[in-house]
Amino acid sequence: MERESLLEPGSTIGIIGGGQLGRMLAIAARQMDYKTIVLDPDPDCPAGQVADGQIVEAYSSRDAARELARSTDVVTYEFENVDADSVSAAAEMKPVHPSTSVLRTAQHRLHEKTALLKAGIPVAPFVKIESLADLQKAAVDLGYPMVLKTATQGYDGKGQVIITRVEDIEHSFTLLNNRHVELIVEQFVPFKMEISAICARTADGQTATFPPSENIHRNHILDISIVPARLPDAVVENARLLAADIAVQFNVVGLISVEMFVTKENELLVNELAPRPHNSGHYTMNACDTSQFEQLVRVLAGLPIAEPRLLSPSVMVNLLGEVWEDTDGDPDWARALEMPGVSLHLYGKSEARVGRKMGHINVVADSVEDALYIATEARDRAWRRSR
Ligand code: AMP
Predict the structure, then answer these.
(1) I need a surface site. Which of 65, 162, 198, 346 has the fewest CB within 10 A?
(2) H/E element, 141
(3) Residue 20's CB: how many other CB atoms inside 10 A?
């Protein structure tokens, strides 16, 4: 395979999307003296605050995407609900990683699951739903419970409903069909754990996978990531291999984040792909010798990637808008930082809303149990909920 041309320090990375992932990518880029320019409609977006420049335009603007490509040496995106056509417009001018075709697949649950199945990657049984009759038939084939999802525009549990009995079918179909988007229904997986693994792949085919994290969600939003995941070594290794297999088969250049279910029998089923850094990989910023953001900078710059090592057990807890709401906008960071091994990461968002990701706390400790205790206690202290 051809080696991607090397971008020297001082070159510029274009980032479509100005959220926290773009912000942490821009900080990692700056560390190695790469410049960044962000495309985001919000002039005060988290990434724009730390980038070298920002184009304040809608993600759907092809002209803005072209302008971004013109002013940079390589382009990436930091969330997958960006307009794929504007990403394509950028790709006509400069390399875009991961490719638009990876993005399009990851944007559409049905295409994603179909591609995974074709690649021999285990997924929960699923069916494409175009009519009420399709859903009624799927119930017979898949059994209950099933999860009906919109094929596009779903994230953090939005756009999905669990169907537990025949009486739910019509109502659930009407509820999601109203949005005029394609639907998919999946067998409900009675998983014992959710995990994710992030694999980096370079243009010349080198891969490296971060240690998988055990993920605990609250209200469908990631709450806590625990590393190493509390699973047998062989299962963890399988998760790494699956993520790397997907990176190779989908020809990813950049990062691919793979969310998986672990069944009671320790079988892995892939639920979702994200071709970008992932919330569950934030622990790498403090617990690995290379963070997911540095790794992406290396890929984008055409540099060799690291084989990331976990230096210590680690736990990440998300800081959602609730922490600000409940403390009248004044979380007690000083008390949180009294705890050992705590790192505070805040995203510079001025408006706190319930469920909005405002920051996270990373903890490194001698054991996962210690890290878990310290991380939740530190958050409670900031939240003024501990005594
Ligand atoms: P998703 O939007 O597909 O990432 O799903 C959000 C969350 O819903 C997942 O993290 C799971 O907790 C749950 N979920 C989604 N699909 C399934 C499924 N087929 N079986 C069981 N739980 C699911």
Answers:
(1) 162
(2) helix 132-142
(3) 25
220 lines ligand 1 (CB under 6 A): yes
Taking a C-beta distance cutoff of 8 angstroms, is the pair 206, 307 a contact? no
The β-bridge relationship of strands 193-201 and 183-187 is unpaired
**Amino acid identity for residue 373 in this structure:** Y
**Tens-place pLDDT, residues 311-363:** 999 999 999 999 999 999 999 999 999 999 999 999 999 999 999 999 999 99
* Count of other CB atoms within 10 angstroms of residue 7: 19
- Among 160, 195, 268, say which to mutate for ligand 1: greatest number of ligand atoms within 8 Å of CB: 160
Of all protein residues, the one whose alpha carbon is nearest to atom 6 of ligand 1 is 157
Give the pLDDT confidence score for residue 157 in this predicted structure.
65
Does residue 127's CB lie within 6 angstroms of at least one atom of ligand 1? no
Task: Please give the distance, rounded to the nearest whole angstrom, from the Cα atom of residue 271 to the centre of ligand 1.
Answer: 7
Prediction pTM value: 0.96
Distance (Å, whole) CA 261 – CA 266 = 9
Alpha carbons 35 and 47: distance in angstroms, whole number: 12
Q: Is 174 exposed, middle or buried (0-12, 13-18, 19+ CB in 10 A)?
A: exposed
Residue in the block written with tokens 């240690």: 211
Helices (H), the chain: 20-31, 62-71, 84-91, 100-106, 109-118, 132-142, 169-177, 233-249, 284-287, 292-301, 321-325, 333-336, 368-382
Q: Among 178, 208, 193, 196, which Cα is nearest to 239's?
A: 196
SS3 state at 259: strand
Atom of ligand 1 nearest to the CA of 189: 20
**Domains of the chain with CATH codes:** 12-96 (3.40.50.20), 125-187 (3.30.1490.20), 193-383 (3.30.470.20)
